[in-house]
Prior knowledge:
single chain, mainly alpha, 3-stranded parallel β-sheet, two-stranded parallel sheet, 7 strands, globular
Amino acid sequence: GLDLTNGGSKYYTAGIEGVGMADVADSLAAVKKLVFEEKAFTMAELLEALSANFEGQEKLRQLLLNTAPKFGNDDDEADEVARESCTIFLKEVKNHTDHWGSDYYPGIWSIYMAVELGVMVGALPSGRLNGEPMSEGVAPSRGRDKIGPTATVNSVAKLDHHLMENGSIFNMRFNPTAFEEKNLPRFTAVQKAFFDQGGFQMQVAVVDKKTLLDAQQHPENHRNLVVRIAGYCAQFTELGPKMQQHIIQRTEHS
């Protein structure tokens, strides 16, 4: 008759989840390359641009967005930054216990919190603007993986998934054409490549951007449109505008 807080549980477990993993990786990779290696601008100039949310500094922001390596493109430089920074977090969580002395189990997933937490985070060296959603789970930042689904899964598979004891979430969005009979072997090969390399979990949404945009403008025509959020599905037209836009901005693979 006792709840957990009063000793009613025989076994205690607690988890701490990392949010914004790709934002951290892309930001650190950008600073490493553009500030320290190429000296395209100084750290002081970067900090000034971040404080101003890149206002009047669009040229600098475009350098960050388009010339710095990004996690999700099978780029070893960016992927190693992601792996190392993620591993530091995962191992640090294991050094702490909760109020009842239970070990914390680390994971990398965010569900809806990628949107909510993003409101409280300022501009980042990745080129992300103040208040924009954070990257979700172990997936690349929305729209930053541009080489194709194989490159994306190769990058994610390089992370130390065995340390994510509380799990991870890897969201991908595919155009429906990927599930045409002639293309199914390619889709299957992408999944197999991920799990053969030690990947933990993948969640797939199958919908094209045109349909999502039309559902925003004409929700009455798309009441049955179901999308994958992260760990659960929902009717797209019942989501808030921020979450709708978050899903639309996910990279669309084909």
